[in-house]
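STRUCTURE:
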């Protein structure tokens, strides 16, 4: 890579996303093992993911105004504080509202870190190297995501789920150390706008753009689907498929294997396959994996669950690398933070809604019937891409990088 701070940027991003995944796996398994209802498991997932909905947009404005290092340092501190509190609560058996609050605080860290990395990445590498740089970032995340469910399953099976959140707190310290090596320069000064107008400018750019708008709509559908699935996963796997927590963790870890395969091949595939095909492929294989699991008999529960997670890792991570590179290519530098925040809200802000929908569906209709909810939502996410001009996109656009900012 072309910048000396790329390694520090990589370390901060990888560590933050690993902690976010480990926290999600730990709290869902620990709560289910403690006898929580599907609705409460969904509430915990919603609390962990609500940070992406509530914090992304104002954090995107700050990413365009402040030194990214400042936000990454703050994110590491939030991770350490929230996860440390959550570890204490799990150790004391307090599965309740306080645990939900601690997970919200901890999840606020990866939000600010992810936005800052998106802004810094085009400064760390050239435009031609963006696919390779984004693939390396996803490779690191995928490698650690491979072991996050194993750690969570191992800890919860031994009634020590607090160890998982304790490791997340340590990750916050690692992020702080990595951020200290990043440049302290602030972005070039821009006319200062009220917060709501600055947010609206980024949203308007996405809404008008022929490539960014379908990406946002697809992300909304996919994240609603995936987090409805995650809210149902532990009750479905433990109670319908009769799997134990360690086996669920092992099957879930196959997600990391799929993500690693996508990260290793991402730059090559982007260079050799039509961009539009890659953007359809991600939601299509997610739909296939969810449908295969919903149709699988309990005797094939573990293989079907492992297959679903492999497809969730491979297709969507390849999609993520492709659309991240496209966003960085077509977004003017002064709007990078706000455009990223808008897409991030679409990608992650739907998490709490999806989790609540999955939890409520499991309680109202039964977990087995509710597994068809994510199947329907994955189909809608694929339709958002198919109904646009994206499937006809042959190569990665590059000419709009220097386009003037909206407004």
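SEQUENCE:
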């Amino acid at each position: 890579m072309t910048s000396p701070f790329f390694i520090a940027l990589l370390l901060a991003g990888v560590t933050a996303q690993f902690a976010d995944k480990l926290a999600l796996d730990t709290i869902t398994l620990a709560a289910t093992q403690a006898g929580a209802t599907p609705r409460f498991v969904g509430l915990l997932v919603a609390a962990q993911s609500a940070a992406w909905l509530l914090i992304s947009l104002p954090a995107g404005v700050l990413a365009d105004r402040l030194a990214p290092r400042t936000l990454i340092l703050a994110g590491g501190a939030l991770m350490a504080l929230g996860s440390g509190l959550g570890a204490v609560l799990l150790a004391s058996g307090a599965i309740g509202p306080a645990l939900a609050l601690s997970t919200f605080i901890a999840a606020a860290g990866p939000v600010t870190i992810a936005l800052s990395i998106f802004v810094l990445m085009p400064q760390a590498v050239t435009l031609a190297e963006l696919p390779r740089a984004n693939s390396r970032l996803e490779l690191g995340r995928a490698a650690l995501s491979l072991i996050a469910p194993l750690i969570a399953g191992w800890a919860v099976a031994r009634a020590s789920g607090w160890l998982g959140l304790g490791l997340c707190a340590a990750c916050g310290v690692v992020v702080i150390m990595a951020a200290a090596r990043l440049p302290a320069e602030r972005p070039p000064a821009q006319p200062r706008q009220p917060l709501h107008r600055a947010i609206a400018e980024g949203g308007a750019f996405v809404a008008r753009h022929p490539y960014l708008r379908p990406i946002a709509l697809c992300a909304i559908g996919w994240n609603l689907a995936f987090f409805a699935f995650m809210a149902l996963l532990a009750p479905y796997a433990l109670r319908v498929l009769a799997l134990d927590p360690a086996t669920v963790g092992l099957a879930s870890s196959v997600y990391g294997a799929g993500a690693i395969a996508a990260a290793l091949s991402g730059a090559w595939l982007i260079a050799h396959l039509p961009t539009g095909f890659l953007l359809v492929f991600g939601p299509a294989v997610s739909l296939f994996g969810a449908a295969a699991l919903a149709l699988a008999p309990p005797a094939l529960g573990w293989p079907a669950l492992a297959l679903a997670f492999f497809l969730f890792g491979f297709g969507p991570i390849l999609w993520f690398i492709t659309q991240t590179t496209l966003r960085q290519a077509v977004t003017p530098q002064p709007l990078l933070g706000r455009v990223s925040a808008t897409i991030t809200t679409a990608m992650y802000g739907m998490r709490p809604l999806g989790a609540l929908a999955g939890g409520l569906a499991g309680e109202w209709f039964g977990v087995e019937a509710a597994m068809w909810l994510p199947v329907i939502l994955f189909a809608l996410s694929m339709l958002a891409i198919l109904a646009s001009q994206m499937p006809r996109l042959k190569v990665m656009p590059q000419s709009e990088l220097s386009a003037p900012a909206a407004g």
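REMARK: The CA atoms of residues 208 and 276 lie 19 Å apart.
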